[in-house]
Automatic annotation (TrEMBL):
Protein name as catalogued: Ferredoxin
Domain 4Fe-4S ferredoxin-type: 1-30, 31-60
Region (Disordered): 83-112
UniProt feature, compositional bias: Basic and acidic residues: 83-92
Cofactor (UniProt): [4Fe-4S] cluster; [3Fe-4S] cluster
Amino acid sequence: MTYVVTENCIKCKYMDCVEVCPVDCFYEGENMLVIHPDECIDCGVCEPECPAEAIKPDTEPGLEQWLKINADLAKSWPNITQKKDAPADAKSFDGQPGKYDKYFSANPGEGD
Ligand code: SF4
Ligand code: SF4
């Protein structure tokens, strides 16, 4: 099992999650973060830290698409271990439906 970053992270990217991960397994894209499923130790401490409630255990049904996105992009995006400022407009995107279709980007972020 692993924890997975899901749709509501897109364009919110608050990054509270990276500060608490004991194994530094978050990776940064342009618009969102992902968790490397082979590095995550399933401790669960990041889940309640996410203001956007975007982190879920992969035992929840219906997360297959997100598990694949996390696994694929964690291989090419840079590692991130320190919180940066969230995008200035993050709040206006929190909870918006259909963010994947409108805003998903496979481009990497900057990392640490
Ligand atoms: S805290 Fe949540 S919204 Fe912020 S980067 Fe982490 S997963 Fe994304
Ligand atoms: S569950 Fe634990 S190990 Fe996995 S990403 Fe969250 S904080 Fe890191």
